[in-house]
């Protein structure tokens, strides 16, 4: 199988790559943390987390803390596995 087959289209965009990178080293991250770390707009975070949720790479939890809504994200086991395969493929490609 070609190395390129493990490069996952779901991680093509830099925002999605950033979201998954954050979630690989943290149990979870809330919306504001992701926004601050990536310097992205609310709309960018919302659309890219929705895309990752659709392919079941992240799970989204919505709750209220006091009266304020809070959205937090966590990588699923599938998401962690696919992201690791993606990064491994990129590393192999770079080494060639």
Tally of DSSP helical segments: 4
Total E-strand runs: 3
Helix-strand category: alpha+beta
Radius of gyration: 14 Å
Low-confidence stretches: none
Average pLDDT: 94
User: N- to C-terminal separation?
Assistant: 15 Å
- Secondary structure: helix percent: 40-55%
Largest sheet: number of strands, sense, barrel closure: 3 strands, antiparallel
Biggest sheet strand line-up: 1-3-2
- Can you tell me the overall shape? elongated
- List SSEs in N-to-C order: HEHHEEH
Fraction of residues in β-strands? 15-25%
Sequence-ordered SSE layout with sheet pairings:
Layout: H1 14-25, E1 29-30, H2 31-38, H3 42-54, E2 58-65, E3 68-75, H4 77-95
Antiparallel strand pairs: 1-3, 2-3
In short:
The chain is α+β, with helices and mostly antiparallel strands and about 100 residues long. Helix content is about 55%, strand content about 20%. The model has no long low-confidence stretch (mean pLDDT about 95).
